[in-house]
Design the sequence.
C-alpha cells in the first residue's frame, strides 16, 4: 500500500494511516510505501535552488529549523510510545545533520547538479519512512523502515527521472521477501527514490512513490496494490470541472494510463507498467473513507467496453508549430523530437499535415517558451517556428472506441453544435483515446459538452 499527499500531512494523518495498515493487515503480508509529508518535496527543491543561487548560512539554519519543527511535531503525535519516540528522534537528528551539511556544501559550490538535487529531495521520504514505521511499532505492528536503495530499487543515472534497471525485480525480492516471510514484519519503504550502481541516490520523477509501489508489487508478485488517495476513486471527469461527474468502479490499465497521460492526476504515468506484465490489480482507496471499495485498475474487461469512459482536461497548455515546404519530412521530425527530448519538454500531443510540412506539438504551458526557443534553432529560410499560448487539451478515453464507428463524429458534432472551435485533433491507432485542443476559455465548456453527449453524468 502506498500513502502520500494529504494522508501524511501531519502526525495525525500518519497515525490514521498507520491504523489503516493495522486494520487491513490481519494475517496478510503487507509492504508500505510512503511519500514525503505534503509540501516537503517542494520545500526541499526550493531550498536546494536557493542555496546554489543566493548562499546564506542563516537561511539554511532557518530552513532546517522549520523542517525539524514539522517532523518532530509529527513524531509527537504519531508515535505513541516514549522509547520508540526517542529512537526515531535520534534517527531523524542524524538525517537533519546530513541535510544541513549537504545544503552548506551546495552553497559553497554555488552549483546544483541533477545528482545533488536528487540527493536533497530524497530527504522528504527518508524523513517520513522512519516516522511511519515508528508509528506502526507504537500501535503494536512490527515494522522496519527501508530506503528505496535498501529495498533494491537500482536505477539508471537519469537523475530526476530515473528508471529501474531490468534485473531489479529479482534483487528486490531477495531483499524484501525474508522480511515478510521470516521476520513477519511490515517494511515501510521510501517511495520516489532509488539508487544507481555507484550508490548515488536517484528519484523516479515527481509523484514517483506510486511507481515505487508498483515496482515492489511486481517484484513480489503481490495480490493487489492499494494507492491511498483523498478521493473515492477515479471519476468520469475531475468534479472540479464537471460537478456531476460519476465514480468509476473498474477501469483498464490502458484507459487509466491514457487518462494520467492527459493530465488526470490519478497516478504517476509510468506506474502501471510494472504491474501490467503480471496482471496485478491496482486499487485507488480513499484514506478518509477506507471502507469504500475504490476504483480497481486491471486488465481489459471484454464485456464492459465503454465507448467514452472518462475525460481529462489539461487547462494550461501551448502549441509549437513547425512549418515549411520542400524538404524531407521524417528528417525534420527526427530533429524536432531530438531537440525536445534534450530539453526535457513534456510532449502532450502531436498532429501533422504532410502535403506541406506542418507539425503541431502540444506541450505543458510551463515548457512552451523553452520548447519554442529551442526549436527556433532549426529555423532557416524555409522552416518557420511559431507558438500559440493559452490552449486546453481534452482527452476522451474508452476501450470501446476501438472498432466503434462514429465516436469522433459524435464528439465533434456536439462541440460544433455548441459553437466550440477545435484547434487541433489527434487519435492514435490504439483508438483508446481521442484528444483535441481548444482555446483555454472553451476548455471547461468543451469537457462538459462531451461528458453530457456520452451520458456520463451522475
Ligand atoms: N514526494 C515526491 C513528490 O512530491 C513523490 C510523491 O509524492 O509521490 O513528487
Ligand atoms: Mg509528494
Sequence:
Amino acid at each position: 500500500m502506498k500513502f502520500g499527499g494529504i494522508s501524511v500531512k501531519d502526525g495525525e494523518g500518519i497515525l490514521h494511516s498507520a491504523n489503516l495498515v493495522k486494520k487491513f493487515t490481519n494475517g496478510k503480508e503487507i509492504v508500505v510505501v510512503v511519500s514525503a509529508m505534503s509540501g516537503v518535496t517542494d520545500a526541499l527543491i526550493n531550498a536546494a535552488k536557493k542555496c546554489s543561487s543566493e548562499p546564506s548560512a542563516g537561511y539554511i539554519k532557518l530552513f532546517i529549523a522549520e523542517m525539524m519543527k514539522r517532523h518532530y511535531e509529527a513524531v509527537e503525535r504519531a508515535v505513541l510510545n516514549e522509547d520508540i519516540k526517542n529512537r526515531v528522534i535520534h534517527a531523524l537528528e542524524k538525517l537533519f545533520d546530513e541535510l544541513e551539511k549537504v545544503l552548506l556544501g551546495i552553497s559553497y559550490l554555488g552549483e546544483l547538479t541533477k545528482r545533488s538535487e536528487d540527493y536533497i529531495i530524497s530527504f522528504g521520504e527518508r524523513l517520513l519512512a522512519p516516522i511511519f514505521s515508528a508509528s506502526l511499532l507504537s500501535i503494536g505492528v512490527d515494522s522496519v523502515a527501508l530506503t528505496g536503495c535498501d529495498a533494491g530499487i537500482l536505477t539508471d543515472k537519469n537523475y530526476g527521472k530515473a528508471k529501474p534497471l531490468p534485473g531489479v525485480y529479482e534483487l528486490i525480492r531477495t531483499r524484501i521477501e525474508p522480511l515478510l516471510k521470516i521476520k513477519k514484519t511490515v517494511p515501510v519503504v521510501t517511495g520516489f527514490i532509488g539508487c544507481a550502481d555507484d550508490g548515488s541516490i536517484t528519484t523516479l520523477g515527481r509523484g514517483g512513490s506510486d511507481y515505487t509501489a508498483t515496482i515492489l508489487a511486481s517484484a513480489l508478485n503481490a495480490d493487489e496494490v492499494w494507492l491511498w488517495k483523498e478521493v473515492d476513486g477515479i471519476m468520469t471527469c475531475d468534479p472540479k470541472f464537471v460537478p456531476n461527474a460519476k465514480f468509476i468502479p473498474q477501469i483498464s490499465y490502458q484507459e487509466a494510463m491514457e487518462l494520467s497521460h492527459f493530465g488526470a492526476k490519478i497516478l504517476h504515468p509510468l506506474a502501471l507498467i510494472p504491474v501490467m506484465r503480471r496482471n496485478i490489480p491496482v486499487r485507488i482507496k480513499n484514506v478518509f473513507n477506507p471502507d469504500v471499495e475504490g476504483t480497481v485498475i486491471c486488465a481489459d474487461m471484454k464485456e464492459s467496453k465503454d465507448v467514452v469512459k472518462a475525460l481529462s482536461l489539461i487547462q494550461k497548455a501551448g502549441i509549437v508549430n513547425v512549418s515549411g515546404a520542400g524538404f524531407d519530412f521524417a528528417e525534420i521530425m527526427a530533429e524536432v523530437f531530438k531537440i525536445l527530448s534534450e530539453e526535457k519538454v513534456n510532449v502532450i500531443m502531436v498532429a501533422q499535415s504532410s502535403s506541406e510540412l506542418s507539425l503541431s506539438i502540444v506541450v505543458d504551458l510551463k515548457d512552451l517558451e523553452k520548447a519554442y526557443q529551442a526549436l527556433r534553432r532549426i529555423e532557416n529560410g524555409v522552416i518557420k517556428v511559431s507558438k500559440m499560448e493559452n490552449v486546453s487539451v481534452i482527452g476522451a478515453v474508452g476501450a470501446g472506441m476501438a472498432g466503434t464507428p462514429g465516436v469522433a463524429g459524435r464528439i465533434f458534432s456536439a462541440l460544433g453544435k455548441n459553437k466550440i472551435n477545435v484547434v487541433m485533433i489527434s487519435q492514435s491507432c490504439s483508438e483508446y483515446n481521442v484528444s483535441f485542443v481548444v482555446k483555454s476559455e472553451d476548455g471547461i465548456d468543451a469537457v462538459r459538452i462531451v461528458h453530457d453527449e456520452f451520458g456520463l453524468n451522475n
